[in-house]
Write a structure and sequence with these properties.
Helix content is about 30%, strand content about 30%. The termini are far apart. The model has no long low-confidence stretch (mean pLDDT about 90). The chain has one domain: Electron Transport, Fmn-binding Protein, Chain A (Pnp Oxidase, Chain A). The chain has four helices and eight strands. By secondary structure, the chain is an alpha+beta fold.
Length: about 160
Amino acid sequence: MNPDNRPKALDNPLVPRLMRVLSRANVWVYQKTGGRLAGKWRGGAAFPWGLPILLLTTVGKKTGIRRTAPLLFIEDGDALVVVASQGGMPSAPLWFNNLVANPEVEIQLGSRVEPRRARVATPEEREALWPRLVAHYADFAAYQAWKGDTIPVVFLERSSAG
């Protein structure tokens, strides 16, 4: 892993702001249309066909405010699996820190909304899933190469309430 390989443009302070604005817009359109619009990520390795996304809502660990993020995912049995990559940025995304503090989350997949319980994959589970995740979205491999530490993988498991 070599963070020096990360494109220097990502260090621009406008990048995280732009990511937040685009994510909020994506969430708003997705929610308004039940995922019919803004339901696919078409950037990077997903261009031009796109890959489906889900919306993950967490509760802020400091603020208690509900926040929603659009994320790529794969299915693993009954669980949905997401990657806390934040596009290869050095820090973990806020949604990851929030779900570690409060693992009771909500997902929206298309028009379906349901509670889930988040669980960080063990190192062994992550190692087993990583090839599938990279096959699904090749840019995850680049993001991992740019990071100074291991990118967390998270299971969104069916909640006993769901």
